[in-house]
């Protein structure tokens, strides 16, 4: 297997300090250091970010599209979690 | 029964213009079509590095050398974005590269033409990247999420490629008469191969129907080709050059240019491996891959030894 490309890593970029890290794509690398260097070369050639995360793709746990309905269902009937559920007197204005 | 249900969900998403993500159920033919199209696209980026690489050592100034290096590096990057997008569909990198190296997979026919003069580097950036952008702008709204996201990144980067090409064409077209001749010669040779990049006419395009139905493509080959000609002619006129087509002229009624079709027999011939540079390109790819083998082996061995290493 001398020709394998190494495992797949997912890359997250933070554009500016204070902003969230956003997924931008994936790449192959044999270890952490190489993953970080490859991510820099591949995803930040034009100052797209100031900080990078790389994580093994196989380490990511995700929900399944088939379960989407039941999995997120508990949020559906809780309108009282939204600010518009509450009546505030007009006299108070914006709150 | 179960499958039928999944298919209904898929079709409903298509009808609502929704995006399909890697873990969503999709019909086998949709998956196959995407793997074929995205990997061909990736191979085109990688093979596309070769005709331009030919001029890196001979670029006429340090500035043009730096620019060309950056452009070729971008194309390597674009190939990698696309390979990883294809890999989300359940194929792997070795399999994709193997298909390229054995000649089983196709790539854009344009890269089987030679770059004979420096003007060719201008013509490629201007025309070939221009045509690619036209196709890729459409693909930013393709129905498969990872492909669409790769296209957004690629389109942002391609604009520099086209502008640097046109800048070279300007320098030559407004330079000495020999330089202008060089620019005209490059335009003559690249015009029809560029028109071929959009693929065969709609009536003879075997993969188009599904691609449109599944919103992988949103516009037809002929529509994109027409738009390219309309958009490019003003740029040709500005340079004081002419396209090698005596039938090309503006049609007031259709508010678009009439133009001659490329030679489709030549297109088929080049696609099937008999273009001027097919063998050279494939040999160069194979050699580069083989020469990189010790690097991959060393990286794998180092990772295995290192305590930070992760199991592949």
Task: Characterize the structure shown.
The complex is a heterodimer of chains A (95) and B (312). With 95 residues, chain A is α+β, with helices and mostly antiparallel strands. Chain A has a domain at 2-61: Phenylacetic acid degradation B (Ubiquitin-like (UB roll), Roll), CATH 3.10.20.520. Chain A is 18% helix and 21% strand. Chain A has two helices and three strands. The longest helix of chain A is centred in the middle third of the chain and has 12 residues, at 32-43. Chain B has helices at 2-15, 28-47, 49-53, 62-87, 93-101, 118-139, 145-173, 177-196, 208-213, 221-239, 264-274, 278-291, 293-305; strands at residues 249-251, 256-258. The longest helix of chain B is centred in the middle third of the chain and has 29 residues, at 145-173. The model of chain B has no long low-confidence stretch (mean pLDDT 94). With 312 residues, chain B is mainly α. The chains are: A alpha+beta (95), B mainly alpha (312). Chain A binds chain B through residues 1-8, 24-28, 30-34, 41-42, 45-46, 56, 62, 64-66, and chain B through 21, 23-25, 73-74, 77, 80-81, 84, 87-88, 92-94, 149-150, 153, 157, 293, 296-297, 299-300, 302-303, 306, 308-310, 312.
Sequence-ordered SSE layout with sheet pairings:
The complex is a heterodimer of chains A (95) and B (312).
Chain A: E1 8-14, E2 22-28, H1 32-43, E3 51-56, H2 68-72
Antiparallel strand pairs in A: 1-2, 1-3
Chain B: H1 2-15, H2 28-47, H3 49-53, H4 62-87, H5 93-101, H6 118-139, H7 145-173, H8 177-196, H9 208-213, H10 221-239, E1 249-251, E2 256-258, H11 264-274, H12 278-291, H13 293-305
Antiparallel strand pairs in B: 1-2
Features:
heterodimer, A: 95 residues, alpha+beta, Ubiquitin-like (UB roll), 3-stranded antiparallel beta sheet, 2 helices, 18% helix, B: 312 residues, mainly alpha, two-stranded antiparallel ribbon, 13 helices, 2 strands, 67% helix
Summarize the structure.
Chain A has 95 residues and is of the alpha+beta class.
